[in-house]
Amino acid sequence: MLTTPEPPILLTARLRLVPGTTRLLRAVLASSAEVEHLLGAPLPLGWPSQDLRGFLGYCLLMFEADPAAQGWGVWVMVRRDDPAVVGDIGFKGAPDSGGMIEIGYSVVPAAQKQGYATEAGRALLAWAFAQPAVRQVTATCLPDNRPSIRVLEKLGMQRTGTTGTGMLAWAVNRPSPAVTRLHHVQITIPRGSEDEARRFYCEFLGLPEIEKPESLRGRGGFWAQLGAQQLHVGTEDGVERHATKAHLAYQVDDLAAWRARLDAHGFTPLESVPIPGYDRLEFRDPFGNRIELIQPLG
Question: Which CATH class is domain 242-298?
Answer without folding.
Answer: alpha beta
